[in-house]
């Protein structure tokens, strides 16, 4: 599945670069991009640039932003041509010159990447409040997902936020998966769970696996599944793999195995709850924001997920939303709620040009 997805991404990138070379040839050099000799040059150049993007990931990031921005520029140009009546005015001539110079997408890409390198290292606290008649008490839940520890973000930044969280004295904390990943060393894996395990809470710390934690995409994992599981347990963190735990008299915390594990073969939500959800407010942690409507029909009151990173790179988040994905924020569905976090860090690149890095505070309030 992973290699098939990568092949699709590379193919789309190749097509995008080929289109981009045609736009540049036509606009800057006034070369007819459709001639067979020019097409041959464009194909060779596109393959070469695609290989560079594949070997140097940041190059692919630049290429994607340029492709999107050039396409957006073309759309704007078509609108301007149709709407703007004064074709000989100074404003129109400046716009036309700017379009043919192709400078704007390059400048905007540069500014976005400068912003992205800054934004990836800013972690904010996002707060949500949910009120329910099922609750007999109030609860403050800290939800953290997608730290991808030791990879794209300076660990010192997260450590500062952990100190901030400790001072808040939360009732419980839920770790929503992808806390570590393929690029995390064994030492870093141990360090991050020691950090989280040191946070004092009233009802404990709970954890669900993401698609990266067990390094399933790594050719040579730096730790085994057993080492990861033992480290989680040794630090007083409870892993919920298709399991649930009652807290107090009115709360139930449930966690699902990630859908990517074992071909997506995981327990049904009704089997996980095992009839324990009656008269309790049920919080479900599932790394990926999927099957939300089904879970709510089975009695879930609040689902907490991550995985999407809110797109991380413009305009992926908008595309996720356009195609119906629960991309980011809180959703109200049939009287219940789902919260999708953008994660505490990014993935793959030390850039975030869309969304924020965050940890989430959920206040459950009795009605």
Annotation field: number of helices = 11
What is the percent of helical residues? 40-55%
Widest sheet: strand order?
1-12-2-3-4-5
Mean pLDDT: 89
SSE order: HHHHHEEHEHEHEEEHEHEHEEE
* Class from helix and strand fractions: alpha/beta
- Uncertain runs are none
Spatial shape: elongated
Please compute the radius of gyration using only Cα atoms.
Answer: 24 Å
How many β-strands, per DSSP? 12
How much β-strand is present in the residues?
Answer: 15-25%
Alpha-carbon distance between the two ends: 46 Å
The description of the largest β-sheet is: 6 strands, mixed
Describe the structure.
Helices cover 43% and strands 18% of the residues. It has eleven helices and twelve strands. The strands form two sheets. Strands 1-12-2-3-4-5 form a six-stranded mixed beta sheet. Helix 1 packs across helix 3. The model has no long low-confidence stretch (mean pLDDT 89).
Structural topology:
Elements lengths: L1 H26 L8 H20 L1 H27 L6 H12 L1 H17 L3 E10 L6 E6 L10 H14 L3 E4 L10 H12 L7 E3 L17 H10 L2 E3 L3 E5 L3 E5 L13 H5 L7 E5 L6 H6 L4 E4 L10 H7 L6 E5 L2 E5 L16 E10 L1
Helix pairs in contact: 1-2, 1-3, 2-3, 3-5
Quick overview of this protein structure:
The protein is α/β, with parallel strands linked by helices.
Keywords for this structure?
367 residues, 18% strand, 11 helices, 6-stranded mixed β-sheet, 12 strands, single chain, alpha/beta
